[in-house]
Amino acid sequence: MPLVVQYPCHPATGAVQSLSVAAIRAVAAQVRQQVLPVRGALAIAMPDLIAAAVEMSVNGRQFEFGVTDRFIAVRIARYGLIQEHV
């Protein structure tokens, strides 16, 4: 199931319009609702976010990314979330 996110944008180009703090928080809440295993938590683990973002729908536009376990491991190591060398 794709990660679905919607926010104000230009209807023809999809360019992001200026977002208020409240609008940015609303986008974050959309993502948290779909990714977090526990309701009410604030932090999203990088592996969970990467795995959820393999297939996305952003403002009605569909995206698919070829994400492999190796890709996830490299990103986790690069961002210092684990102490493992890949």
| Total helical elements | 3
The largest sheet is: 3 strands, mixed
- The percent range for strand residues is 5-15%
- String of helices and strands: EHHEEH
Mean pLDDT: 78
Instruction: State the low-pLDDT regions, or none.
Output: 82-86
Total beta-strand segments: 3
Shape: globular
Distance between the termini: 29 Å
Number of domains: 1
User: What structural category do the secondary elements indicate?
Assistant: alpha+beta
Sheet with the most strands: spatial strand order: 1-2-3
Helix content: 25-40%
Our Rg estimate from Cα atoms comes to 15 Å
Describe the structure.
With 86 residues, this protein is of the alpha+beta class. It has one domain (3-78). The protein has three helices and three strands. It has helices at residues 21-35, 46-52, 69-78; strands at residues 3-5, 55-58, 61-64. The protein has a three-stranded mixed beta sheet with strand order 1-2-3. A hairpin with a 2-residue loop joins strand 2 (55-58) and strand 3. The longest helix has 15 residues, at 21-35. The two termini are 29 Å apart.
Summary, kept brief:
With 86 residues, the chain is α+β, with helices and mostly antiparallel strands. It has helices at 21-35, 46-52, 69-78, and strands spanning 3-5, 55-58, 61-64. The chain has one domain (3-78).
What brief labels describe this structure?
single chain, 86 residues, alpha+beta, 37% helix, globular, disordered C terminus
